[in-house]
Amino acid sequence: MELSLYTHAGQLPEAAAKGRHVVILDVLRASSTIVHACENGIERIIPVAEVEDATRLVSTLDRKKTLLGGEREGVKIEGFDLGNSPLEYASKKLKGKTLIFSTSNGTVAIAQSAPAREILIGCFLNLSAVASHLVSNRAKSVALLCAGNMGHLSLEDLVCGGHVIDRIVRSSRAKTDLNDGAIAARSLAACFEDVGEVVRGSSHGRRLAELGFEADLEFCSKIDKYGIVPIVEDGRISRKSIAG
Ligand code: MLT
Q: Measured between alpha carbons, how far is 113 from 59 in angstroms, rounded to an integer?
């Protein structure tokens, strides 16, 4: 299995995503919010890169059954129903609903991976489920795409990617071939025993704490809370495209 890690959205050119299994890692917070919303029973998630795409799309759907969610600069977008705190995505709000979701980096990374064979959503919450999915499906070429933050790498995404790689290397019977990003992330992950410390100490974590989202940091640091893997198919995640 060829395992390559890319440090931020934009580093994996669209054409290079073609035919590969791409894992979108945005620990803070898009991946964590998507995984939590799927676990909490959302019917469908349509990730979009731009706020304008979200508002255009919502005007074509039944508003009573549709939620607009996402953030810019960490806070809820004006006129949207929900922000990007996973803790806002409680099950009673989500049942039977379609979520149109736009964030600064995570949904951009998803959009840039459109030509992939499969787009998986990963974070600490479903770390082992992502690794098992790739191993049991005998994935040949995997790109772990860290969303990062506005073109820069994010420590928490890199450490999460390192843990996914480590689990795959340890459990796969196939020979694994790592790029330098994957080797670096795996070594980095081995340096930190406490991912909560990584998340709290990261620049994105500190910024979110300043904005009052400390509880999100604790939540997004939970390893293997869930056993599901949301998969983006034809630009959306539906109940039937959630593995696990
Ligand atoms: C993103 O997509 O950049 C993040 O999820 C931002 C955030 O923490 O809200």
A: 25
Substitution site in 24, 45, 99, 103 for ligand 1 pocket (most atoms within 8 Å of beta carbon): 103
- For residue 193, the model assigns a pLDDT of 86
Which ligand 1 atom is the nearest neighbour of the CA of 106?
A: 2
User: 45 vs 66, 91, 108, 171, 232, CA distance in Å?
Assistant: 10, 14, 14, 31, 9
Residue 101 is given by DSSP the state: E
Q: Which residues of the chain have pLDDT under 50?
A: none
As a whole number of angstroms, the distance between CA 100 and CA 129 comes to 25
Q: How far is the CA of 170 from the centre of ligand 1 (A)?
A: 30
Question: According to the model, what pLDDT value does residue 106 have?
Answer: 98
